[in-house]
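Researcher: I'd like a structural prediction for the single chain below. Treat it as a standalone chain; there are no partners to consider.
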Amino acid sequence: MSDWDAFEERPLPEGLGGPEQPDPVSPGREMAALLQRYWADLQSERNRVQKESAAARKILTELAVHVARLDGLLGEAAGPLEASGAKSLGRRLHVARKQVLEPLHAMDITTQDPTGKPYESVADEVDIAGWRYGPEFTAEVVAETLEPIVLDRGTVVRLGQVIMGAPLSAGTENDA
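Model: Treating it as a single chain, here is the predicted structure.
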């Protein structure tokens, strides 16, 4: 006979028996389960909000590009509008432009027009759509901006689309 044979199984206190008698839920365990459920719901809601926020910021980035294009067109039209006697229309368009820009700036979404900047200073912020060679260029610079650089909280989120300008000598070297 081994030492273990002398032991008898004792009955468990009420409520602590096997699957036929599940444990009563203690307040601590109930609170832990409730907190876990709330935590999971909170994480799910957080993920949903982050996705919606990212989608909204992407739309605002697109809007910033279109506002910059509109700004360029307004700049071109200012002189002809004034010459034709429609100066008040030019002012109203300028006010509307400011009103569209305010919410973008409030969200810290801005644009930069790199026209005239040297290639070295914008190389990582633009896609080059083409080159223009001529005597008016003394170095490689942005000759024309097709789409501006868009920044979200100071970080480039959309590269600008530009036409680069270079001296005539650069064009003949590349063609050879």
